[in-house]
Amino acid sequence: MTVAKAFSMPSGRRENIGFFKKTAAYVFLISGSLVMAVPFLWMLSTSLKEPGVVFEVPPKWIPETIIWDNYRLVLMESNLLNGFLNTLAVTLPPTFVGLFASALAAYAFGRMQFPGKNVLFLALLATMMIPGVVLMVPSFIIYKYLGWIDSWKPLIIPGMFGAAGTVFFLRQFFKTIPSELEDAAKIDGLTPLGIFLRIMVPLSKPALATQAIFGFLGGYNDYMGPLIYLNSPEKYTLQLVLATFQDNYNAEWTLIMAGSVIALIPTIILFFFAQKYFIEGIAMTGMKG
Q1: What is the spatial distance between Cα 70 and Cα 255, in angstroms, rounded to a whole number?
Q2: What average pLDDT score do residues 122-143 get?
Q3: Which residues contact 242 (CB under 8 A, 6 or more apart)?
Q4: CA-to-CA dists, residue 134 to 10, 127, 131, 159, 170, angstroms
Q5: Helix axes 80-111 and 164-174, enclosed angle (nearest 10)
Q6: 29 and 83 together in one domain
Q7: Residue 207 domain-assigned?
Q8: Does a structural domain hold residue 64?
Q9: Residue 251 domain-assigned?
Q10: How close are the terminal C-alpha atoms of the chain, in Å?
Q11: Is residue 63, in this structure, part of any structural domain at all?
Q12: In whole angstroms, what is the distance from residue 82 CA to residue 239 CA?
């Protein structure tokens, strides 16, 4: 009997340990998911209650009388739908145009050779170290002189030039694509732009989808930017409209929570349909330095 066989673990015991580890992992993940879901479930429960029973003790998760009329009041009497359309107007152009600009820069940094590439890339990464609050006052002064205050321009135009974090993310993904594909495309006569559009972009759908989700959610949930630059209520985005609920409805939490649930629906739908690309993009990025 060899030493390896003498000290080898029985197959049944290995299977039991593997089953225990997998079970423990599932229990941990399910428990964490339930903890994370508690605020949303409480918000949903509150949105279906009568105003007088929101803070009763002990709290009731399932209301005795479900009041669907809260959602009708919010949709009919508030500017929630107008705020949603305004949010799409200021979010979609930076998301897609900015993503394309970032992808172009990432392709140049990841796959092309030119003088000063590393220095420029380090300078780009250095901009990520600057806190956003430091730039608020200078940005406001610049936009004021440009006459952009109380317009959507400060929320749209800067984002259409891309973002340093997106460039870094996509650069790491582009570096994982085999160089043989690029060499074959060059032999076939493709230009760098053709290689980017016909090879890099189709192969990078998971990474691009991931960054599109991040970009959309960042603009969709942005509160500070619209608060600083928008003054006219008809131009308010969804987050500003929700912020006015507390004044308009005199802290009627059932209506506030109903509006919050409605505002969450688009993001839930987006993640539900794009979760495959989102997970793939996170898992595959950074596998090659």
Answers
A1: 6
A2: 90
A3: 80, 83, 256, 259, 260, 263
A4: 61, 12, 6, 18, 26
A5: 50
A6: no
A7: yes
A8: no
A9: yes
A10: 45
A11: no
A12: 11
Which comes out higher in pLDDT, residue 142 or 3?
Answer: 142
Position 116: which residue type?
A: G
In terms of C-beta density within 10 A (0-12 exposed, 13-18 middle, 19 or more buried), how is residue 257 classed? Answer: buried
Give the angle subtended at the CA of 209 by the CAs of 205 and 212, to the nearest 5°: 140
DSSP secondary structure string for all residues of the chain: --HHHHTPPPHHHHHHHHHHHHHHHHHHHHHHHHHHHHHHHHHHHHHTS-GGGTT-SS--SS-SS--THHHHHHHHHSSHHHHHHHHHHHHHHHHHHHHHHHHHHHHHHHH---TTHHHHHHHHHHGGGS-GGGGHHHHHHHHHHHT-TTSSHHHHTGGGG--HHHHHHHHHHHTTS-HHHHHHHHHTT--HHHHIIIIIHHHTHHHHHHHHHHHHHHHHT--HHHHHH---GGG--HHHHHHTHHHHTTT-HHHHHHHHHHHHHHHHHHHHHHHHHHHHHHHHTTS--
Rounded average pLDDT over 169-188:
87
Identify which has the larger pLDDT, 154 or 278: 154
Place of tokens 């582009």: 174
Amino acid identity of 133?
A: V
Biggest distance spanned by C-alpha atoms of the chain: 86
Q: Are residues 74 and 38 in the same domain?
A: no
Measured between alpha carbons, how far is 71 from 78 in angstroms, rounded to an integer?
11
pLDDT, tens digit, for every residue of 230-287? 999 999 999 999 888 877 777 688 888 888 899 888 888 887 877 776 666 555 554 4
What is residue 284's predicted lDDT score, i.e. its pLDDT?
55
CA distance 55 to 6: 65
**In CATH, what number is assigned to the domain containing residue 120?**
1.10.3720.10
**Residue-range definition of the domain harbouring residue 41:** 3-47
The amino acid at residue 271 is: F
Residues 250, 281: Cα–Cα separation, whole Å: 44
